Amino acid sequence: MKEQHYSQPEPIAMARRDWPSRTIEKSPRWNAVDLRDGNQALPDPMTPGQKKRYFELLCEIGFKEIEIGFPSASQDDFQFCRDLIEQNLIPDDVTIAVLTQAREHLIERTFEALRGVRQAICHVYIATSELHMKYVFGKDRKQTEQIALTAVKQIRELAAAMPESDIQLEFSPEEFTDTNLDFAVEICDRVIEAWRPKPGEKVILNLPATVERRMPNQYADMIEEFIRRLRHREQSVISVHAHNDMGCAVAASQMTLLAGADRVEGTLFGHGERSGNVDLVTLALNLHYFGVDTGLQFKDIEGIRDEIIELTGMPVSPRHPYAGELVFTAFSGSHQDAIHKGLRGRDQLSADFKAWKIPYLHIDPADLGRRYENFIRINSQSGKGGIAHVLETDYKVRLPRALLIEFSRHVQTLADRSSREIDSRQIWDLFNRCYNRQEGILILDKYWPRPNHREPALIDGEVHVLYRGEKKVLRASAAGPIAAFVHALRELPLPSFNLEEYEEDSIGDSAEAQAITFVRLVDRENRSWHGIGFDQNIDQAAVRAVVSALNRMLEGEE
């Protein structure tokens, strides 16, 4: 192994590790920090109007704790807090949180912003890692602990001076995952003692992975061991706040919930400093998949996504879990075929597996307000299953297998030539150009099938066509209207052919439903020629399909 270039945090010594064998059975408390952590990381911070709409959106989704800003850090954040309180914009069941450093004048300014609030969380933090204490602030552990305790006592006194307001305390030992665990436990226990919780009251201990330097399992180890060593566990709420520097914030947060965390802080789509925060959309919907009622509603995930993009100016990746434009989309032919068959037989699959289960789709897109029709899209990597799915879902047309195999080659040629995705309309237009050939060497004008009065078992057919520019009237009798039509056409100088396959279907379920007919003709050289026809009358649809196939054959002969 090569020499280590980066300083690694020490693993946590544990006599017992329980979290890997647990399951997540209940939802954590959620705290959305989009308006503080998320907003301060935007290239262009949101305007007051945008922040108000964002706050409304978070409430609509179901968040009951929302960190709205850092009132002592800027006049904008201060005024936003005042606006929410003075304009009575905070729902009764929602608690706002405000952040402050453990500094006297900043705490005073924070409480000025909270004046008149019904309920709020005062979130105070101080860095507790050796890196920050010694090299950024020039403090030792004892000095850092004293600053934290002084700040907590000040907050307690200011809260007591506002008896009309319910003020909760949240304390963060910043850079928790880079902090000596014994020191983190000690300072948190002392904070709880300094706050002196009333019966039933709890202090929120927020234990952040401020910079992601540990594997997710090590974060979980720290949380489990922290809880095991904490003297005042019954008077605390264990909160986690994961950043995403190594891309593991969601995994880390899920593991900390297994380890005993009660609460999660994060942002929608992970907006935040550097690589961002834990993405609450992904985390919450993962828990939804595992059967946990999160209390959060993402029934219109695309609408939420689009509004957040508009408010923040930040894009959401097309491959973003759950919300990305393409996350429920398959281009691969084998994937398309499996999804198409799974969706067609999903009732049987649900019965067999005792729950919802579809190949390549781990969650029901309908839970997010998304539609099945968009999930199979066509490019040069696609196959028959994808083409069949698009035609069936968008146009209610189910192709015979032989026709599907042949048509897929036409689609492949178009995709290769265009070198891009082919949309549903292009596929439908290509299908009609290939197989619905009513204009050509043979043009049908009229066809009248009538009962034969002399032979009741026969049908008389009278066919009016334009063949190579000449009008023709053709007549024949046969056992059925389609056979009569084909026999009549044999009066023309056509190449030899046989009608080998005939299928019919309907497009739509109403009385106005249109019939579609598929035919396959075989010529003297045993080549197949497919044709389709549409009409409200099934017989007329059939003869149109024969005309389409013959035009393709005649053009192929020439």
Question: Which SSEs are present, and which pair or pack?
Answer:
Blueprint lengths: L28 E4 L1 H7 L7 H14 L3 E5 L5 H12 L8 E7 L2 H11 L4 E9 L2 H6 L5 H20 L5 E9 L6 H15 L7 E7 L6 H14 L6 E7 L6 H10 L4 E4 L13 H10 L11 H12 L20 H12 L1 H8 L30 H12 L5 H18 L5 H12 L6 E10 L7 E9 L2 E9 L2 H9 L7 E11 L6 E10 L4 E8 L2 H20 L1
Helix pairs in contact: 2-11, 4-6, 6-7, 7-8, 8-9, 12-14, 17-18
Mind explaining what this structure looks like?
The protein has 558 residues and is an alpha/beta fold. It folds into 3 domains: 29-312, TIM Barrel (Alpha-Beta Barrel); 333-432, no CATH class; 442-557, Alpha-isopropylmalate synthase LeuA, regulatory domain (Double Stranded RNA Binding Domain, 2-Layer Sandwich), CATH 3.30.160.270. The protein is built from 18 helices and 14 strands. It starts with 28 loop residues before the first strand and ends with a helix. 40% of the residues are buried. The model has no long low-confidence stretch (mean pLDDT 91).
